[in-house]
Amino acid sequence: MHFLHPELLYAFFLLLIPLIVHLFRLRRFQKEDFTNVKFLKKVIQETRKSSRLKKFLVLFSRMLLLACIIIAFAQPYIPHGPASSREPKRLVFLDNSFSMQAPLNDVTLLKNSLNRLYESLGENLQFDLFTNDREYFNLSASQLKKELQNVNFTQERYDFRQLRLKAENYFRKYPNSKKEFILISDFQQNLEIPTELPKDSISYTFLAQTPGDFFNSSIDTAYIASSDPESINLKFGLSASGNSEEDFAVSVYDGDRLLGRNTVNFSEEQNTEIQFRLQNEKINNGIIKIEDSGLLYDNRLFFNIGEKQPVKVVVISDAPASFLEKIYTKPEFEISVFSPTRIDFNQLNSANLVILSEVENISASLLNNLKNIHKSGTSLIIIPPEKAENYASLLNNLGFPDFGEIVPADKLITEIEFDHPLLSDVFEDRVENFEYPKVSKSFPFNSGNPVLRFADGSPFLSANNNVFIFTAPLNRENSNFLNSPLVVPVFYSIGLQSFKTNDLYYLSNTQNNIDIPVKIENDHVLHLVKNDLDLIPQQQNFSNKLEILIPSENLPAGNYKLINNENETGTLSFNYGREESKLKYASLQNLKNARVKKDINDYFSAAIASSHITLLWKWFVIFALIFLAIEMLLLKFLK
Hints:
Shape: elongated
Distance between the termini: 39 Å
Largest sheet: 9 strands, mixed
C-alpha cells in the first residue's frame, strides 16, 4: 500500500493524547465507611471491573477512529503495477500545422486527432497540451475539452529540437514525476527528427497520424517573366505531391474579375509552370486559384501589381555624363544631370540615387544636402576626380576615410566579387578570363566591402551602407572601364537597388523591409488593412519614400490595403510559406529510444490501465464512522 501524502502519517503521534488521558486517572477517590461492609465491597468490585473494561474499549475505538481519519487524509492506494508507483506527468504536443489538413476518413488529420483526445480526457487521464501556436497548461479536463474545440490550423511550426527543449523546460517543474512526452503529428521530414533520441528521464511516444490516399497540388511562386507597354507575361510555379492524369483548372482574378483561365496536368512532372499574358495594368487584388481537393491553404496565392515607379537619378558632374544617360533610360529610370554650380535641390532631395561624378569642388550647401539625403536612405555613387583634396569631410561623414595621394601606376581590374549582393543575380556564369579594364592612376583606399578589385587585391569599387566609391577617375584619359562589359551591369544594378520596388507578394512568416513611394505627414502613420484587421507596422519616413518593417508574424494570407489618412495608397500581398505542401513524411521505423504508435485511443487506454490505482481513503472514512458509532454505543449501553 502507498500513500499520496505520506507526510500526514506523522499525525499518528496524536494517538498518544487519548492514551495518556485514559491511562492516568485524573480524579481522586474519597473513602467512605458504611455499616454493611460485606455487601458494599462486592458491589464496588463488580463496578470497577466493568468500568475498566468499558474504558479500554472506548480507548481502542477512539484510537482506531483517529487512526482511520489520519490514514484517510494520507490517501492510501494500491498500485496495479510497478510503473504507477510514481505519479505520471504527461505533456502532449498536437501538431496543427497546415499539413494536418490532409484527409482521413472524411475528416482532416487534425480533426481526427482532436476527436480522439476529446474522448480520452477524463478523471482517470489528464495531461497538459500545447500546439504550434498556443499552450493549454494547468487546465481541468472539462476546461481542456472546451479549449480543444477552438484549435485551428496555423502556419507556425516547430522542429524537433525546439519541441524537445520546450518539453525539458516544462518537466523541470516536476522533478519527481514519471515524465511522458507524447507527440501527435503526421511527422513530416521538416521536423528533422534524429534517428536516435537522447536517453534521459523523458519517455517519448510518437503517435503518427497517416493520411489516406490523396493527391495535392500547390501554387508555389509567381513572377513577371517579361513585360512591355501593352502586356505582361505572368508566370506561376506549381508543384504536386504525386502524378495525376487529371487536368486541374487554374484561374487568375483581380478581386472578382476573371483575368484568365488555363489547365495544368501533373501526369509526367511534379513541378511545372503556367503562363498568363495579361494587360499591363494595375492589379490590386490579384488571386490565382487551383481547383484541388488536397490541402486547402496552398490552393490560392495572393499577389498585386502596382504602378511602376521610375528610379529617380540625379547626376552632378563638371563634364557631360553621356554614358550615364545611356544606362539610366526610361521607363526604369528618370535621370537629371546638373553641374555643381546649378543644382535643383528639390530634385536632389527627392532622388533615389545621386552620382557625384569627378566633381572637384564640393560646396558647403551640397555637402550638407548629400549628408541629409543619405540619412534619408538615398544611395550615393562617388567617382573621384584626380584632385580630391576636399573630399575628406564628405567621406568622413559617410563613414569612410579620406583618399590618400593618387598613385600614377597602371592597374588591371581583375577580380569580381560575384557573391556581393550587388552582383549576386547579375551574371549567369562566373567568368574568370575576360578583357580586363585598367586605370592609369588610382587612390589608395581600403574601406568598405570591395565589389571590384585590382590585381593586387586593393579595391576599385567599394561599397558600404548604400555608398559606392570608385578609387579611380573614370574619364577616358585615365581608364577604359567605360568601354568594358562591366560598366552597364554595375551601374544598372546600383540603380535598381537604390529603390526597392515592391514584390508581387511577401511571405508572412519572414521579416520584410518594404519601401513605399509615398509621402505622409509627420503626425500620420500608414495602416495595413484587411477586412476587420487593422495593423500599424513599424515605419520610418524619408523625404522620398516610407520604409516599413513587418516582422515574421502570423499574418493571415491575403491582399492588404495601404491606408494613409483614410486614403488608399496601394496594396501589399502576403502568402503563407509552402513548406508544408511538400508532404514528405519521416520514417519512424528505426527510431531509437522512443515508442511509435498510431491509434490515439489505444495508447491512452493502455496508459490509463498501466497507471490505474485503487484508492482506499473512502474505506478508511467508512471505518472511522464505524468506530465512532461503536464508541457512542459503548458510552450509552455498556454499564
